[in-house]
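Example pasted here:
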Amino acid sequence: MGTQSIITLLELAQAIELGIQTALPNSYWVVAEISELTVNSKGHCFLELIEIPAHNETIIAKLRATIWSYKFQLLQSYFYASTGIHLQTGLKVLISVKVEFHAVYGLSVSIHDIDPVYTIGEEEKQRNEIIARLHDEGIFTMNKDLELPVFPQRLAVISSAQAAGYQDFVKQIASNKNSLRVSITLFTAAMQGIETEQSIIKALNSIYEREHEFDAVIIIRGGGAKTDLRWFDNYTIASHIAQFPLPVITGIGHDKDISITDMVAHTSVKTPTAAAEFIISMGNALVSTIDNLHARLSDACNERIAEQKFTLQQILQELFHSNTLRTTIANNKLNNCIQKIKSASLFTIQKQKHFIEHISSNITPAIHTLTHKHQQNLIHSAYKLQIHSHNCILHNKQSLELLQTKIELHNPQRILSKGYSITTNAHGTIINSIDSVQPNDKLYTYIKDGIITSTINKKDATN
């Protein structure tokens, strides 16, 4: 080995530095993705830049890059003002870099400028590609096509447990004016940052395993920067939500912007509070519908009861008039019978008296005994006639009393007061045979102090 080939480490480093400066003397515009980004206490920004080809997750290039503090504040402000997004991991950027080599710190690139227009275009392009892909796969509106329950009460909520938005959601649900019962089960997830996709998918999978326990899924987060919304412009999250078997409601806290997650969800509202109000409004609408139906049913029942009460009063009145008429006719017949008996008795007595007087005036004293005998016979006949008349009157009186008793026994009011009842159908026809009714017929049973309404569930034949 010759002495001319031996150099120091510093000399080698200086040779590399000179070679790089000679080979790469200029600044270069480079497209790269930010995989890591940190800012130290002095304000210097250190990045790791990578390149991943389309439809492939393998990194094919990686370099460290630096934005020195004096330049970082200017570039950060300029980039945010142009895009509404802070420099952060996951962004694809077009940057102007100069390759440098330092004897102590090694190879790095120094970033001097950034083109925000490229990032805006790339973000929008990627967003449009995701939307087009969801449409091409035929899943974009699948979740929207699901039927949301009239009032979803069992809610699976995906959010951060510490998020103010989640606390607002729970408070709004708990303070509803109708005291509606809503069950909330929290499935925690990161709602921004690189863990967003993985944690939301994990939460959705956990809910899917308990699908039968829930009516809907709510994804909520509090307000934040516009940049936070980009984590929801994610194909994996969107495709899972679009194909999820339960309706998904989103409220991720942006009034003006809408994410792809919002687009594929069944229902999208602006904030967590709005999501709670949406659920409560459905419950209030259901309560209002039930109240209206209850009022209508009550009015219909009262009207029906009034009609049946009027019909029953008419029936009772007709029965009363019918029984009164029958009693009057029976009394008249009895009186006529008594008069006839009296007339017949008086006629017989007068006839016998006249016969006696005639006999007395024409017979001789010799036949006094015969006369006396006939007189005795007459007295006996009169006595028998009196007894016969009395018995006849008594018999007819008993018949009349029996008839009166039967009439009273058949009086509907008396029958009802003894615990019996009268049952009619909806047309007022009295039911006296099981063949007169059919399943689902409504029956009205009249008792002494009211009406009982019933419905035939099934028809049983008994011997």
Remarks:
- The longest strand covers residues 28-39.
- The two ends are 127 Å apart (CA to CA).
